[in-house]
Amino acid sequence: MTDTALESLYEYPANRTWVTANFVSSVDGAVSVDGRSAGLGSPADKQIYLLGRDLADVVLVGAGTVLVEGYRGARPDLERRARLGLPAALPIAVVTARGTLTPELPLFTNTAVPPIVITCAAAGLSGLPADVIVAGDTEVDLRVAVEELAARGLRRINLEGGPTLFGSMVAEGLVDELNLTISPLLAVGDAPRIAHGPVIPPADLSLRSVLRADDVLLMRYRRRNSS
Question: Angle CA(93)–CA(99)–CA(105) in degrees, nearest 5?
């Protein structure tokens, strides 16, 4: 498919807050190899991963994923964003209920725009070069987090993990769409699946599209009560 066709297929709905999650998994459900998702990647998956960022207003991610994957500031395709009428800046919003983020991380030192840190009062985070949002007392209230992002004009939310944050967002009914890449690998091992969290009634999804790149499948699902 052309870039224009992919942009149309993966575009966000207009004039509303929308959360799209992006994950890659092995055929047997592993979300990582040797602790990192990069071991499951492919050129096709990377293309959709970068597209997801280019179309978003903000990247939402858990602090554990930031630390394991070595997150730095996002570097979107500026030509594409200008053509689509999106601002050049693409902040990373990190969810953490603990004081695990420190100012020397690449997230803060290697970025064109300060990140957003979404935390709770009990974490006691201060002194970070970031826009700090306190959403909750002892745990992060994810509904408040999404509302605070939307209040900043960041309504196209690209959720990149990890499994615990994704599971919690699903449990709160906050995920509208899932872009899932199936890597043609059997990873075995003890890696987690893409969602981990409280036991909830299964969320009903509709399959919106399937793309194939050699042996890689790229699927797009939407929650049925999301319009």
Answer: 60
Inter-axis angle of helices 43-54 and 3-10, nearest 10: 60
Contact 50, 207 (CB under 8 A): no
Place of tokens 């981990």: 196
Distance CA 80, CA 7 (A): 10
Closest to 185 measured CA to CA, from 45, 46, 48, 29: 29
The pLDDT tens digits for 81-109 are: 999 999 999 999 999 999 889 999 999 99
Spatial distance between the Cα atoms of 211 and 219, rounded to a whole number of angstroms = 6
Q: What is the DSSP letter of 155?
A: -
* Phi, psi torsion values for 52, nearest 5 degrees: -55, -40
pLDDT in tens, 22-64: 999 998 888 878 777 667 878 999 999 999 999 999 999 999 9
- Please provide the size of the chain in residues: 227
User: Largest alpha-carbon pair distance within the chain?
Assistant: 48
